[in-house]
Task: structure prediction
Amino acid sequence: MIDFEWWLNNEDLGRMVDYVRSRSSKRKLQLFDCACCTRIRHLMTDPRSQAAVKVAELRADELVEEKEVLDAAHQAANAYLPIAAMADVVYGDPNWSALDALSADDAERLEEAYRSAIALHRTEPSPDRNSVFSAFHAAGAAYLTISPNADPVHDVSYWACAAVAHATNPDFEAAYASGGDAAESVAHRRLFGDIFGNPFQPVVLVRTWLTSTVVSLATGIYDDRAFDRLPILADALEDAGCDNQDLLKHCREPGEHVRGCWCVDLLLDKS
Result:
């Protein structure tokens, strides 16, 4: 049974995602995907993957035209297909679930990617297995985040954790069998809590808290991604009469905060 106590003590991110999927906005789910990908931008070997994550974040807030989204998805597919084909040709048995999100046009280029990977493998020494699989999973995570054909939280957390596992564990077989880096998975659960809070104990906004100072601070934090200002926001909320300890505590908590943070969203009326 999923209840308040379960939510507080749970470590099963998959079940938490399933619970909020039908109870939250698509925006929140997309921002969680973006947050997971942003943590592994350094593992994305193609700048088109990195660019796609930025466009996906803009899409979540409806700040980008659909044409730009489709172009970014196409470019992310161009980055993903060659490394995916190489992973399959050289080492076999990669995770191909991202193919379900490919558009028809992008899927048609898969055969070309295979031919290129086979030709490259014949002429060049085999690259490091972990490097290939880390780049493969990072590119797949970026593509799943931007693809219009993928559901929000379509295994993006798993792909990102797998990318980290192959980047940090020198034992390829152990990394492959791990199901993803454990520490990265913990970080994702914290990101999830930052974005979704506790649905069994939602904070009710009191309109008198929304002084000009509070609104200005919250807007600047969101627009500038200046989450180091959250403790200042907590002070401003207290000055406005806020005594909700869940809200104040979250603003003062150390650690990673991201766009979609439930405290900032609450104050800015973002769903």
About this structure: The chain has a mean pLDDT of 85. The first helix runs from residue 4 to 9. The chain has two domains: 4-196, 207-268.
